[in-house]
Amino acid sequence: MKEFKVTYFFDEEHYIRRFIYMESQEAAEQLIQSERERYISFTDSRGIYHELNTRNVRVTQISEYFRDQ
Known about the structure:
By secondary structure, the chain is mainly beta. It has one domain. It has one helix spanning 25-34; strands spanning 2-9, 15-22, 39-43, 49-53, 59-64. The strands form 2 sheets. The chain has a 3-stranded antiparallel β-sheet with strand order 2-1-5. Strands 3-4 form a two-stranded antiparallel sheet. A hairpin with a 5-residue loop joins strand 3 and strand 4. The two termini are 16 Å apart.
């Protein structure tokens, strides 16, 4: 599994970041596309629970993430 960083931007200053594990970039993109225009929920790496209405997102970025070990 690969780790991907997903960043949801609301404007130039406000964003939420999420990390997901998927087999490929294409699979990550399909997941994000399937979540358009709906509510999603997730817990971030700090243990903070988020509910996000993707309808309010202006830009979504997906990139493979490589953690420093």
